[in-house]
Amino acid sequence: MERKRYKQLRAAVGVFVGAIVAVAVTRDSYLLAAAGVITGMVFMALVRSSVKIRVDEREALIKEKAAQLTYAIFAPTIGIGAFLLLMPSHSGLDVFSRGEFVYLESLGMILAYLALFLIALYAISYHFLSRKYGGGGDEE
Prior knowledge:
Blueprint: H1 3-26, H2 30-50, H3 57-91, H4 94-97, H5 103-132
Helix pairs in contact: 1-2, 3-5
């Protein structure tokens, strides 16, 4: 199967799943929505496993660089966002002490945990891939 045909099939499945979810949400049938999403995922997994999609070195390099850039932008952004949302609640500002924006501290905590999770996930995956591809320093 060609890449163009695969993309068309993926778009058609996406439209189908979107329509099923839209109908399910309007009828308050969340079980139908979940079943539609799971069915779409299983169908695409089966199609993808039966088809070899060729990826050249240029495309692989672009994906690698995009992932690196995304991590380099996203991790500091949510870290700084968490810091900025947590800082006013501990400084004793009058606006935050009245409880009007008490959700900002919760949002800051969530962002802080997400930043830590992202950094830990990166470290673990880096360690795993480094060992898998021969860079772990254990070549003796």
